[in-house]
Amino acid sequence: MQVEAHLQKIIDQEGKVHLTLIDPASQTPERAAEIALAAVKGGTDAIMIGGSTGASGTLLDETVIKIKEKVDVPTILFPGSSAGLSRYADAVFFMSLLNSRDLGYVITNQVLGAPLVYQSQIEPISMAYLIVEPGGTVGWVGDAKLIPRKKPELAAVYALAGKYLGMHYTYLEAGSGADKPINPEMIGAVKQVLGENKLIVGGGIRDAEAAKLCALAGADMIVTGTVLEEVRDVTVKVAELVSAIKR
Ligand SMILES: CC(C)=CCC/C(C)=C/CC/C(C)=C/CC/C(C)=C/COP(=O)(O)OP(=O)(O)O
Ligand SMILES: O=P(O)(O)OC[C@@H](O)CO
Ligand SMILES: [Mg+2]
């Protein structure tokens, strides 16, 4: 419960959480650690590590190790499969892609990954992962029956089912690099049924205004990945996003 409790404490004290997503396949472990450090200087609360294609093995382990050498905030795995686990991380979003047509993403990868989590110190954080249009690479890889952008009620019933199955977190994903983030109507409808359960929103959030809209609509945590791979000054960008969502 350490990482989950830590994030809860930040929500209690500061209202919202900012998460930085680093894809181990996008740069060297050393560069990943530099980005993580810059993000922490900007005020990010934790580092998510994962990618939908090829984040595994030595590259993944080395990326986690280098990041942990540089920063004190929690490292949380965001695995694309059971191969996306590393014993060096603090926690894992132990997620099921509830709207996948492929049983592999609903339960099989979780079964294959469970023994490593059991044998290590990685804290599992149970999460319902829901992919909304346009869905991007992760929507294709995960064979998701994409939730239409204009159907907030569909996202809400999936989230409710996840909550009744005992999942603590719900992640509304528009897909990495999406042209628009999840809309406020959908975020509001999902948060309404979740109550105290936590809502993460990500995909296509590139500036303070978008982050603020998502947070005001009911997101407890905001994820940014792509934009931090693109900007020159990660600290400045993260500081802008963080100050837009925190009270
Ligand atoms: C809990 C365990 C062991 C496994 C879960 C397995 C599941 C449910 C995966 C969901 C489907 C999937 C492929 C998720 C990937 C999540 C992720 C890291 C998304 C961000 O990646 P992108 O930024 O889109 O990746 P690329 O940049 O590699 O396209
Ligand atoms: O890369 P971006 O668009 O910030 O999306 C982050 C995350 O939701 C992807 O899984
Ligand atoms: Mg990516």
TrEMBL record:
Q: Where in the cell is it found?
A: Cytoplasm
Is-annotated flag, keyword Lipid biosynthesis?
A: yes
Q: Which InterPro entries match?
A: GGGP/HepGP_synthase_sf, GGGP_HepGP_synthase, GGGP_synth, IGPS_HisA/HisF
Q: Which cofactor does it need?
A: Mg(2+)
The cross-references to Pfam families, in alphabetical order and at most eight, read: PcrB
Q: Does the keyword ATP-binding apply?
A: no
In what pathway does it function? Membrane lipid metabolism; glycerophospholipid metabolism
Q: Which residues bind Mg(2+)?
A: D23, S52
This entry's Enzyme Commission designation comes to 2.5.1.41
Keyword entries, A-Z? Cytoplasm, Lipid biosynthesis, Lipid metabolism, Magnesium, Metal-binding, Phospholipid biosynthesis, Phospholipid metabolism, Transferase
**Catalytic function, reaction form:** sn-glycerol 1-phosphate + (2E,6E,10E)-geranylgeranyl diphosphate = sn-3-O-(geranylgeranyl)glycerol 1-phosphate + diphosphate
Q: Which GO terms describe its molecular function?
A: imidazoleglycerol-phosphate synthase activity; magnesium ion binding; phosphoglycerol geranylgeranyltransferase activity
The entry assigns this protein to a family as follows: Belongs to the GGGP/HepGP synthase family. Group II subfamily.
**What is the protein named?**
Geranylgeranylglyceryl phosphate synthase
